[in-house]
Design a protein that fits this description.
By secondary structure, this protein is mainly beta. It has one domain (23-176): Jelly Rolls. The protein is 3% helix and 57% strand. It has 1 helix and 13 strands. Strands 1, 2, 3, 4, 5, 6, 7, 8, 9, 10, 11, 12 and 13 form a 13-stranded antiparallel beta sheet that branches. The two termini are 17 Å apart. The relative contact order is 0.32. The model has no long low-confidence stretch (mean pLDDT 87).
Length: 178
């Protein structure tokens, strides 16, 4: 295992230093007030095979699941989840979506909304996979999904289920170094 670099103020960084960095910020996008969805373009490219997407600092207008969709594709999404409620020790399993128009990938309410998604191979011309974790009202959830068409995507759409609107915060897209 490699030791993480320890940089000093004013230090000149070499190409070797920079090549050792694992995640690169690709794009940030502010979320407006009361918007039904946010479309992020130019998020995926040949520069990276895999990506991390986060949305923090925002809220939803009602207690809902966050939905995630690759731009331009509204079919063949599969998601499975597991979750635990804060008020009890029971694990809830077997939740998910089968051949729907988007992935379920987090959740929120009027206090906070959280999205943390790894998207695997969205730009590659093959099926795209994703993994997510986050909070949904009074529960912690995590899961995975698959989008079966062998297509290449450059962007995505994030929106609340049930017509919930999004307000505030920032969506960040990071590329995992190949």
């Amino acid at each position: 295992m490699a030791t993480p670099p320890d940089f000093s103020p004013g230090q000149v960084l070499t190409a070797a230093h920079m090549d050792a960095v694992g995640l690169w910020l690709v794009k940030t996008q502010a979320v407006g007030s009361g918007v039904a969805s946010v479309t992020v373009t130019g998020a995926f490219s040949a520069d990276y095979d895999n990506y991390r997407i986060t949305w923090s600092g925002g809220t939803l207008s009602s207690n809902q699941v966050m939905l995630f969709q690759l731009s331009g594709s509204t079919v063949n999404y599969y998601t499975s989840w597991a979750g635990a409620f804060y008020t009890g020790a029971a694990i809830t399993t077997g939740l998910g979506f089968n051949n729907t128009s988007s992935w379920g990938a987090g959740g929120g309410d009027a206090t906070t909304a959280a999205v943390n998604i790894d998207v695997l191979g969205p730009y590659l011309t093959k099926a795209t996979n994703m993994r997510f974790s986050g909070d949904f009202v009074d529960a912690t959830i995590s899961g995975a999904g698959r989008h079966t068409p062998a297509s290449s995507f450059t962007g995505f759409v994030l929106f609340g289920a049930g017509g919930a609107t999004m307000t505030g915060g920032t969506i960040r897209v990071y590329g995992y170094r190949n």
